[in-house]
Amino acid sequence: MRILVTGGAGFIGSHIVDRYIAEGHEVVVVDNLSSGKAEQVNPQAKLYVMDICDPALAQVLETEKIECVNHQAAQANVRRSVADPVADGEINIIGSLNLLHHAIRCGVKHCIFASTGGAIYGEQETFPAEETHPLNPVSPYGVAKLAVEKYLFCFQQIHGISYTALRYANVYGPRQDPHGEAGVVAIFTERLLRNEPPVINGDGEQTRDYVYIDDVVEANVLALRHTLSGAFNVGTGIETSVNTLYRRLKALIPTPVEAVHGPPKEGEQRRSLLSSRRLQAQTGWAPRISLEEGLAKTVAYFRQQHA
Ligand SMILES: NC(=O)c1ccc[n+]([C@@H]2O[C@H](COP(=O)([O-])OP(=O)(O)OC[C@H]3O[C@@H](n4cnc5c(N)ncnc54)[C@H](O)[C@@H]3O)[C@@H](O)[C@H]2O)c1
């Protein structure tokens, strides 16, 4: 199949591109390289350095005869969305709308969308959250993801384009940016390898559901293979505190430095935990990589980057 992967130079997108190519698909990447890296794009994919807000996206879809869109490109920083909701909305809502509008006009049949399980439910009322949990995002980033899910539903009704919204938990693994504000596993690993103390925000007892990149890529493969319809959580159903995560990384990286605690981040959710029963029931997907194994693989990757 001919697939357009937006954000294919980024952390998650570049792994999806590698796997789709390995599965025999023809892949085109659109990425403006704002946080992604051209060298991460599989050489067998065709890269267009282009913004998803650019109307010229229509030509790419048409020239490349795209049949399916996998939309990973985003302003993916929750805190930045709070600081500048307009800029976030321009990329995450208007950019997505530009992409979907042209994709529909060019006859694209299916869209896979990188949504968020960590931010779309807001402060959770039940644990773990199923897809039916109330959607009360408390960040502009979460609101934008919800808006795109609603557009996808609406366009399915009007135009018949099918869609899968994959609501990722906290994804970690090789290629995650260790210098950003999000991606605690990459940030802590990088600092420990440099013998610099990681900073734990607040008391460190806030929890997240950490899912390894390979399991997320597998969900993207299954979404394509089964043409899944609707929203699906992609998480492990296991809750881990930042303190526990830090201790596990410290056990893998021998260093005398100790973490320091900083002030809590305003508006940060206390707990996040997802149930992926729906995805499991429809595709047989299950998280295969334990946190222990995933952290070991991630540390090995960052060690190699340092060498
Ligand atoms: N990492 C996580 O834990 C997580 C969790 C939930 C959802 N997501 C979503 O998954 C997707 C991928 O996230 P990631 O962690 O790989 O982030 P990333 O920043 O590594 O990747 C995003 C990619 O999109 C590109 N991009 C950004 N704005 C663009 C624009 N206007 N036009 C074209 N390209 C643009 C960037 O250059 C980058 O390559 C995002 O949609 C994100 O919101 C990520």
Structural summary, described in words:
The protein has 307 residues and is of the alpha/beta class. It has two domains: 2-169 and 211-234, Rossmann fold (3-Layer(aba) Sandwich); 171-208 and 238-273 and 289-306, Alpha-Beta Complex (UDP-galactose 4-epimerase, domain 1), CATH 3.90.25. 40% of the residues lie in helices and 18% in strands. The protein has helices spanning 11-22, 57-63, 78-83, 85-105, 140-159, 184-193, 213-225, 242-252, 277-283, 291-306, and strands spanning 2-6, 26-31, 46-49, 68-71, 110-116, 162-168, 170-172, 199-201, 207-208, 210-212, 230-234, 240-241, 260-262. The model has no long low-confidence stretch (mean pLDDT 97). It binds nicotinamide-adenine-dinucleotide (NAD).
